[in-house]
TrEMBL record:
<feature type="site" description="Important for substrate specificity">
    <location>
        <position position="10"/>
    </location>
</feature>
<feature type="active site" description="Proton acceptor">
    <location>
        <position position="80"/>
    </location>
</feature>
<protein>
    <recommendedName>
        <fullName>dTTP/UTP pyrophosphatase</fullName>
        <ecNumber>3.6.1.9</ecNumber>
    </recommendedName>
</protein>
<keyword id="KW-0546">Nucleotide metabolism</keyword>
<dbReference type="InterPro" id="IPR029001">
    <property type="entry name" value="ITPase-like_fam"/>
</dbReference>
<dbReference type="Pfam" id="PF02545">
    <property type="entry name" value="Maf"/>
</dbReference>
<dbReference type="InterPro" id="IPR003697">
    <property type="entry name" value="Maf-like"/>
</dbReference>
<keyword id="KW-0378">Hydrolase</keyword>
<feature type="site" description="Important for substrate specificity">
    <location>
        <position position="81"/>
    </location>
</feature>
<comment type="function">
    <text>Nucleoside triphosphate pyrophosphatase that hydrolyzes dTTP and UTP. May have a dual role in cell division arrest and in preventing the incorporation of modified nucleotides into cellular nucleic acids.</text>
</comment>
<feature type="site" description="Important for substrate specificity">
    <location>
        <position position="163"/>
    </location>
</feature>
<comment type="similarity">
    <text>Belongs to the Maf family. YhdE subfamily.</text>
</comment>
<keyword id="KW-0963">Cytoplasm</keyword>
Amino acid sequence: MIYLASNSPRRRELLQQIHVHFEPLLFRGPGRNDHDIAEDVLPGEDAVTYVQRVANAKATGGIQRMRWRELPSRLLLAADTTLELDGEIIGKPDDGEHAVAILQRLSGRVHRVLTAVVVSDGLRFETRLSTSDVRFRPLSEDEIRYYVATGEADDKAGAYGIQGRAALFIEEIRGSYTGIMGLPLFETGALLQEFGYSL
Ligand SMILES: Cc1cn([C@H]2C[C@H](O)[C@@H](COP(=O)(O)OP(=O)(O)OP(=O)(O)O)O2)c(=O)[nH]c1=O
């Protein structure tokens, strides 16, 4: 049994897919992300550095709470997903209009999705990065607005979910489907095995 330091329902589904038994370590508290981890981009920070820093911060936050519960020997897993386009980091939309603006930028272009996954036993923190290139076909204003109205853009990096209706927008991916969805299972499995977890 591992701890999953995540509120993301996608990450839970994906871990279940590879039969990893986990207990969610839920983040509580105010804010868009329901945890105290600063998700602001630091000046000059690139997407690779950013996504790894945030995933490690989530893992560290989780480990601190595990110690408090006096269970330091269990493994803990955390992850972070972000998008990059034109050297710019694109996170979750603030509201519906922001979601529309993000999807208009992605329309007809290739963007990069980065997911960093971290496993820790409280002493060692190991990180793996999954990088995928995603090509969107050109989208009309109407279909973007319809998509955003379905609510599927909410709370997702890049204002879309490949696992939902946005599959209709995606012409091609190069990389990892599960990485785009929020937890790259190949890298996750390899990391867990590195810590002696048998799969
Ligand atoms: C690009 C893309 C993102 N997403 C989601 C996965 C993540 O939940 C979210 C990215 O936000 P994250 O900040 O990585 O994760 P989160 O806040 O949802 O969860 P937590 O920090 O508690 O682990 O976007 C999809 O579900 N499908 C997609 O195709």
